[in-house]
Amino acid sequence: MFCGPRPASPMSLFANAVFTLSAAKLSDLPAPAGAEIAFAGRSNSGKSSAINTLTGRTRLAFVSKTPGRTQLINFFRLQCGAFLVDLPGYGYADVPEEIRRQWQGVLAAYLTRRANICGLVLIMDARRPLTDLDRQMLEWFGPTGKPIHILLTKSDKLTRTEAAKVLQATRKELVPWADQVSVQLFSSLKKTGGDEAERAIGRWLELDENTAEKRKAPG
To answer: Cα(131)–Cα(89) distance, rounded to whole angstroms?
Structure first.
C-alpha cells in the first residue's frame, strides 16, 4: 500500500507510527489489512533503536538492555495504512533451546507465508554482519522474491574507513542476492542513514500499490 505523496521532511514515511497490537504466536496475527514492512535482526543488533530513530520516537520500540527479551511480533500502523512489523530478535544464546526454536519457527512461518509483506528490513551490527543466522533469514525470505534492505547499524562504532570497508565487503558477499538486496550504513546514535532507508522502503510501498492496481484492472 503506497503512502501517497510525502512531505520533504526527513523520516516522514514513518512519522506518527502508532502501536496497534502484539502477537505471541501466528494464530494471534491480525487479518492482513495493508502492506507490512518487516524488521528483523539478531538480538542486540540495534533493531529497536533503528525503529525508534526512523520513526523519530524514543520509546516506540522497546530497547532492552537484556538481549533476547523481546518475544512478540509488534505491529505499528503508519499514517498511510501500511504497517511496520517488529519481529522478535534472534540468536541470543542464553534463551532456552525450546523457546529459541519456537521463535525461529514463528519467524520462518511469518516471513514465508505472510502474503502482504512488501519487504524485509534486516538489521545487522556493522561490526559483525552476515552471521550464520542472518544468512538463514536471507534463505528464508529470499525465495519470496520480495526486496530486502539491510541496515548496518552502530556504524558510529567504526572509523569512516572501517565502515566503508565493511559496506564494500558486505555488498560483495551479497552478490548472489544482488537483484533483491540493498545495503547501507546506519547509526541511531548519530542519526545517520534515515533518509536513505526511507527512500528504499518507500519504493517498496510504491511497487506494492502499483501491483495492487494492476490486479484490480479489468482484462
So the answer is: 14
- Give me 151's grid cell: 541496515
Q: Say how far apart CA 92 and CA 121 lie, in whole Å.
A: 19
Angle, vertex CA 166, rays to CA 40 and CA 138, nearest 5:
30
Domains and CATH numbers, the chain: 18-212 (3.40.50.300)
Q: Tell me the pLDDT tens digit for each residue of 180-193.
A: 999 999 999 999 99
Name the residue among 146, 141, 136, 217 with its Cα closest to residue 180.
146
Q: Which three cell numbers stand for residue 73?
A: 511480533
Q: Considering the chain, what is the average pLDDT of its residues? A: 84
Backbone angles phi, psi at 24, to 5 degrees: -90, -25
Q: Which amino acid belongs to residue 214?
A: K
Q: Mean pLDDT across the stretch 154-177?
A: 96
